[in-house]
Amino acid sequence: MRITIVSETYFPQVNGVSRTLSQLVRVLTEAGDEVQLIHPDYGEPSRAVGAYRVPSVRIPFYPDLRLPVPPYRGVRRAIARFRPELVHIATEATLGLAVLLDASARGIPIVSSFHTNFDQYSDHYRVGWARGGIWRYLRWFHNRTRETYVPSRATILNLERRGFRNLVLWPRGVDASLFRPDRPGRAQLRRALGFSEQDVVIAYVGRVAVEKNVEYLAEALAEAAQKSSRARPLIVGEGPARPVLEERLRGVATVVGFRSGEELADHYAAADLFAFASRTETFGNVVLEAMASGLPAIVLAEGGPAEIVRHGETGLAIAPDAPPGTFAEALLALAEDGPLRRRMAENARDFARSQSWERIMGALRDRYAAIVEADDPATLEPIA
After folding, report:
1. pTM of this prediction?
2. pLDDT, tens digit, for every residue of 343-366?
3. Residue-wise pLDDT tens digits, 146-200
4. Which of 90, 144, 273, 337 sits a CA distance of 20 to 30 A from 150?
């Protein structure tokens, strides 16, 4: 097949969308498909072979992000030259809209995916006044594609209530050979970070930003560390809220900044627990990476993480409206109970190993093929 994938975020930006799409491109390419990836130009060569990079500009209030700049005449010419059999639009802003209109006019089958909890993002960034218009646009956008791939059942229910159609569950996978508890650098890294074998390291991995509920998490981590000298928070990530987080956890947490690849896997393995308080996740890739690394996960029971973590088996899912003190109590319960923590760690690892990228992306590829061949993809086995 010849597949065009369009996204307003990709590597070197590191987030759930870029990680997911890179795995999709890999699996399609290994299956013999020709893939055209269209994404913003980040000033360096793309990781994807044959990618078309769109001129972009930095966002003043969020310099880590870049926005593609219209008009998109070059994008339309690139798609025309490539002659895709199917277009997958992963983001719905100006680039995604331009491709939706162009591919529709050419009669190319289009699918889309939904990645972002716009309700809570609009609250965090104080644009709640625009929420109604945003949802009307998103419904209009996705209902003009053959299928919309959604990472969690909770998100599907939310979208169905809003009038979205043709929604298909598309969960995420994990590389359990990279993210694993027996990383050879684990002991050395713990020593380098100042942790002893008796310490219980509580890791957070992700963007350090308000939409990740990091202030709530900081309160919970600070309380846990105050009540137990063995509880040692480890923060892995960058973002605009890092100064606030560092100030709140000064003298309490070890903050190492952004890590990726083997280094990131070593940092997961150096921990004993995973703490994640975000309420805006449609899935939560880092939760699954942590579980593959043998970490019981403590999360708020909302959105994607609530579907990944089995409460009492692979971690703990705390009521989303619970105060930080309740979250801290959950952290301390596992920090102080070694046998329970190790049992949950084994369960978490077993679950994560069942969630391979090859299986999940292969099932999505089958849906692509059914659409290209003018079959009914609804007759296929679910992706989950």
Report:
1. 0.90
2. 999 999 999 999 999 999 999 999
3. 999 999 999 999 999 999 999 999 999 999 999 999 999 999 999 999 999 999 9
4. 273
Type of residue found at 230: R
